[in-house]
Amino acid sequence: MSLAPHCAIPCHVDDDDSTHLLPQSISLSSQLSLPSLRSLDSCAETLPYSLHRCIATLRAHSSYVSAIAVHGESVYSGSPDQEIRLWPCVHLDSASSSSSSTPRTDHLTSLTVAAAKSPVKSLVVAGDNLFSSHQDGKICVWQINRSERQHCKLKAVLPTQKDRFLSLLVPENYVQVRRHKKRTWVHHVDAVSSLAVSHDGALLYSVSWDRALKVWRTSDFKCMESVAGAHQDAINAVAVSRDGHVYTGSADARINVWRRGGDGGTKHSLVQTLERHRSAVNALALSADGSVLYSGACDRSVVVWEGGGGRMEATGALRGHRRAILCLAAVGRVVCSGSADRTVRVWKRGVLQKGCYWCLAVLEGHGGPIKSLTAAPVVDERSRRGSSSSSSCLVLSGDLEGEIKVWRVSIPHPPPPPVEGIFC
């Protein structure tokens, strides 16, 4: 039995919209008994209050951009070309170019700071460590060098040699991975699709197309726990809340919620299964306080879950994309969704009315499906003084053509009044 998902990069290889898409006659919200949400196909064009601009286009990878991670004022990008590249001072340069009307394509240079032995699937930064997951089932730990022009040093490859050696000695440590093949429980046996770090930085979570969830201690990189068969199909995404709840999204169209044991224990148990999507879940994102979870899937919707504390309920769905949702990023009260339709949509959550969202912008200009996405707030002098009627965030989106675009999006305060294309 193959453990790989049916489609490694969902819904991007064909121009035929029929792949992975719901029939036109099906309404997701009505099927799920959720609040009736209006179509947002032309939402951004009806919002004169939004201001967004592509301020830079970055290109260096020889393949598509599979992962983007922000560290301070710099950006790391990963690709199937097996390189991890550093773009120094992207935040500073982007902020200073916010008044320019022409995207800058040649002022930002990058350098290869790490060369892996397998395609890069995911990147996450914790302290001075850069974690990268790979197609071959391994996780690399790189030491970030304070000097921007220095290569990252490889600190460890997970599972570590010590973990592998100790697990070899005990027959009970072997698990069946295929009909005639066994591996020790510390190994991922397929691509590691996503990584997440606990908010205290003590634990690293990894999920894989082998359907396993693994927990690693960041102090010594020891594998603390492996949940085999965490889903019925490949796991594509993982997110961790401040209170320690872990969310995993899978090609089985489900999101599982895991809770860490008390008394300082690291064992995780399944506490809830969220079922609202009709096809593979590709991406997850959490609000800063963990009270709102966003999930994006091949059914073209972003489902909004609210509650926190590991008990979530679906409160609505954000629609407007014409193809699969491949990636999500949340910052403040804003969530961004990247799609195989080559656009990024920027949504803002209302303050006074629960469940209200506005589509602030549709970011267009990519030549291929959006595979990776991240966002960060912009802090300028006016926002520090509180004299501005809006704030800004930077959105970085990577596509299957190998480009990264840097967008500056203004967020009005208070939000605009309800007009056509905005729903509550």
Automatic annotation (TrEMBL):
InterPro entries: JINGUBANG-like (IPR045182), WD40/YVTN_repeat-like_dom_sf (IPR015943), WD40_repeat_dom_sf (IPR036322), WD40_rpt (IPR001680). It holds the Pfam family WD40. Transmembrane segments: none annotated. SUPFAM superfamilies: WD40 repeat-like. Keywords: WD repeat. WD repeats lie at residues 58-87, 185-226, 228-258, 274-306, 318-348. The keyword Hydrolase does not apply. CDD domains: WD40. This is WD domain, G-beta repeat.
